[in-house]
């Protein structure tokens, strides 16, 4: 089966690429802007993040808490991070790309699914329009969060 593009997002953020990456990648920040993430638990907390590093992500979706094992398939800070998770629905992949521009950072997000079977392929194609509502809110919260952190740091000097 072929990979299905479920969601894309792009936005300019008037903040330094290092700050944007920190807010996107450090768990202490992620749980503050992403309302679905409860926590991410590193499988090997003593090692640095690299391609192949794995973690368990605990997420709350509606009233249900799920745990998913995820793996970094790309890791080139602060420019690209890709995370893959193998679930019953298939292999989901989220790629975060950051690019510098004169006023700050361009954030690009791409979410795809390689369905595990025809059922999940059909459901994903029928329902992928709904991902926009969920993810847009998360990434708008992310941008607001980056500006809040930037403001707090500017105030502290």
Q: State the end-to-end CA separation.
A: 52 Å
Which fold name fills CATH's third level, the topology? Alpha-D-Glucose-1,6-Bisphosphate, Chain A, domain 4
Oligomer: single chain
What is the share of helical residues?
25-40%
- Rg measurement, Å: 16 Å
When the domains are counted, the total is 1
Report the sheet-strand fraction.
35-45%
Domain Activator of Hsp90 ATPase homologue 1/2-like C-terminal: 15-122
Protein name: SRPBCC family protein
Family: Belongs to the AHA1 family.
InterPro entries: ASHA1/2-like_C, START-like_dom_sf
Keywords:
35% helix; single chain; globular; Alpha-D-Glucose-1,6-Bisphosphate, Chain A, domain 4; 157 residues; 7 strands; alpha+beta; seven-stranded antiparallel β-sheet
Description:
The chain is of the alpha+beta class and 157 residues long. It has a single domain (4-156), classed as 2-Layer Sandwich (Alpha-D-Glucose-1,6-Bisphosphate, Chain A, domain 4), CATH 3.30.530. It is 35% helix and 44% strand. It is built from 3 helices and 7 strands, in the order βααββββββα. The protein has helices spanning 17-25, 27-33, 118-156; strands at residues 4-13, 37-42, 54-61, 64-76, 80-87, 90-101, 104-115. Helix 1 (17-25) crosses helix 2 and helix 1 (17-25) crosses helix 3 (118-156). The longest helix has 39 residues, at 118-156.
